Amino acid sequence: MTNCNIMVVEDEIFVATEIESMIEELGHRPVGIAMDSTSALDLAQHAEVALVDLNLRDGPTGPLLGRILAEKFGVTVLFMTANPSQLGDGVPGTIGVLPKPVIDDELRQAVRYAVARRHRLPAEPPARLKLFAADNSNDPEDGLEARA
Q1: In the chain, where are the structural domains located?
Q2: CB-based burial label for 96 (10 Å; 0-12, 13-18, 19+)
Q3: Maximum Cα–Cα distance for the chain, whole Å?
Q4: CATH number of the domain at 5-147, please?
Q5: What pTM value is reported for the model?
Q6: Pairing of strands 76-81, 49-52
Q7: Distance between CA 70 and CA 92 in Å, rounded?
Q8: In this predicted model, what pLDDT tens digit does every residue of 67-106 receive, in sequence order?
Q9: What does the buried/exposed string (b/e) look like for 25-45 if buried means 16 or more CB atoms within 10 Å of the residue's CB?
Q10: Which helix (H) or strand (E) holds 99?
């Protein structure tokens, strides 16, 4: 599978570094850890995929950040959070949400799935990944039109 530049948006450094290690183990390139929305936007131009928590150092900014990453930067966004209900029916342009805590195999499968979606390849999502309806993470406009 094609390698990807992947950003981790997570305010708990231990969790973030564990995710980054797994990204490298899978053969992808971590582009950095962002603990708040400002840092994430600074890294956005280098990322193809972002794993985004909802509650960051600057508050519950993850949902809006995910939408900006998808719509403005064309990043494939997968949310990972202990509070998936905060996303309701989803965020336009993003793939879905994986509830925390996440076991290693599930995280590996989620990263593989996000990368496959990025490259429009078939892949099986982890069982607990809630996919958002009418999603097309590579063309956010399609997702928005489907909701219009």
Answers
A1: 5-147
A2: buried
A3: 40
A4: 3.40.50.2300
A5: 0.89
A6: parallel
A7: 8
A8: 999 999 999 999 999 999 999 989 999 999 999 999 999 9
A9: ebebebbbbbbbbebbeebbe
A10: strand 96-99
